Amino acid sequence: MPRLAISPEFLHGLGALPRPVRREAILAVRRFLLNASTAPHPERVRNGRDPRVATLRLADRHRGVVVRQDDVYWLLTVLPDAEAWSYAQRHRIGVNTAVGIVEVWDAEALERIEPALRRASRSGGRPLFEDFCDTDLLNIGVDARLLPLLRMMTSEAHLAAVEPLLPRSQFAPLSALARGGSLAAAWRELDACRCRAADEVDPEDLLTALRRSPDRAVFTADAAELERIVAQPHWCTFLYPPQHTYANWPSYDEPVLITGGAGTGKTVIALHRAALLARAATGPILLVTFSQGLATELSARLDMMVGDELVRKRVEVGNVDRIAHRIVSEAEGRAPALVSSDDLAGLWQEAAAGRFGRHGKHSDRRFGSAFLLREWEQVILAQDLRTLEEYQAAARPGRSVPLDAGARTLVWEAVQHVIGRLRETGRRTLLQLASEAAGLLGRAVGDLLGDREPGREPYRHIVVDEAQDLHPAQWRLLRAAVPAAPNDLFILGDPHQRMFDTRVALADVGIPVRRFHLKLSYRLPPEMLSWGVRLRGGGPADGLVAGNAGLYGYRGLGHGPRPMVREYVTPAAEIAGLVSTVADWLQEGVPTAEIAVAARTADLVRTARTALREAGITVKVAMLHGMKGLEFRRVAVIGVADGIVPAPDALTPAAEDPTARAHDLQRERGLLYVACTRAGELLYVSYSGRASPFLPV
């Protein structure tokens, strides 16, 4: 029986085939896997660069390109006959001698580019790699056949010209050297291309190289597994090396924090980590995020990934608010009543209008309702302050308006007024529930896995996605919900994508972490990423760890178009332009499920949705908040105009609290940044009138 491995490019090519041809090709691969008498047989390629490369006739006028060594077959791609033969002739397969992963080379294209490089080298100039001898380059895995080309290069432009022709494990370390980096820097780039260490590399051992390359190949043992691989989205099967490493590491001795920008695959890592822990069957698992909408999306994606019903049931997927609500409900024997946002706003306005002073005396000093709310959530609830004395002694990070002892007393009494009014009516806020749930769980967490007390929520592992938007009270709940043990907390987030004004260093809430950082965006091309970083502001962001996290080193792979920014004279013209653009995308063959439209206001969302539906177009239309955690091929963000983005009513007056206003502006930038970075292929941004000050010039 042949051992069959499948590449992601093969599945991509399969998905692009007409349905009858695709069905025929899948049946042919199944027969080949089962070694049936009617199975296609490998056909040799004349004048090929690699004798191991062959083709398989999979369907009418379509062939698969396969690499064969002994009984191992690696399906590379499926193409129309002529293109398949050309692909098979052009390419050769190698094993990186430094890290032992498989590499695919367009050898013919490299041969064609050699004369141009030779001519360029005659014009003079300092050789690009003259500081490194051949042995240095070979030691970082550079293929010996590439050395003559490298010696002709005199500029980074020469190396950039061959980037599309090289495996990433070849280009990445060479690019580091070309930028002036050291061999150590080149090794760091090379390490990011592998999932596991290779004790010894045999360049002729294709089987071992494929097993070291889970982003390039997946083995299928039977027809059922083949069907599953073909039916699932690629992210279910193939992980990039850093994603695979972090998701599948056998055991972490302490809580882990993985940070990374948009498109680095944090959610995919979270899903695969939860699935790995579920298969290990060491105890119940919680996969948690900050909103119920995202939790629903995560649950659906986990359903796709995990076919075994028993394994899937070991993972609970939810958001922190619902978990807190359930814990308090079970402890109290009834569901707690929640205060509405409008009623809560009224209570804070009431507190701001009143004059509370010590011993009932009146005071002439007042604080705005927004100021009091932030002080309660960001200082008092965040630090779980229970008494005036604790509040008087507490630090107030992120709060720029200084408060002396008298002012703090006034604030405390105003806060107690609101808490008292809530208690009188039997209502609570979600953050109050999180704080109370943490207290319920925190008294005896160690025995949660044994005989648990009523109202306790026992988890053996917790995986947290979108961690940057959780409040300290919610973190205390999660810390209390899982015993401190190996593989207890696995946390993923990005402070630069924060959508709420919550800033917390995990160590301050009892979660010291070991941190890892993802730098490569696999979704965003450099053109879109650099534009997005300028839109975001590019500066450091605080939260999750002590100090600030910058965007240094964050970069995209491949190349793509720059964002399309369109100006319109009137809002009506802008909506007409949106309808025309989305219609063009559909005409180009982009599925409706791969298109999204986003706007800052509910009115704009309704207007866009109505206009698209009247044109017979049904795609996702959401507010900027609703784009969190999603990804699409093409995204249109409309209404990015001054007076709409940033939203005026979302900004604290500068006279009241300049730091809060700065945070509000950065949060608004973050909202727009998150929506714009959902697009993997094309981003369209429009406005009427004057552009938002956030848009890059």
Describe this structure as you would to a colleague.
By secondary structure, the chain is an alpha/beta fold. It contains 27 helices and 25 strands. The strands form seven sheets. The chain has a six-stranded mixed sheet with strand order 2-3-4-5-1-8. Strand 22 (595-599), helix 26 and strand 23 form a beta-alpha-beta unit. Helix 14 (266-280) packs across helix 15 (292-305) and helix 22 (430-442) runs parallel beside helix 23. It starts with a strand and ends in a 9-residue tail after the last strand. Residues 356-364 and 444-455 have low confidence and may be disordered. One of its GO terms (molecular function) is helicase activity. Residues 239-536 form the UvrD-like helicase ATP-binding domain.
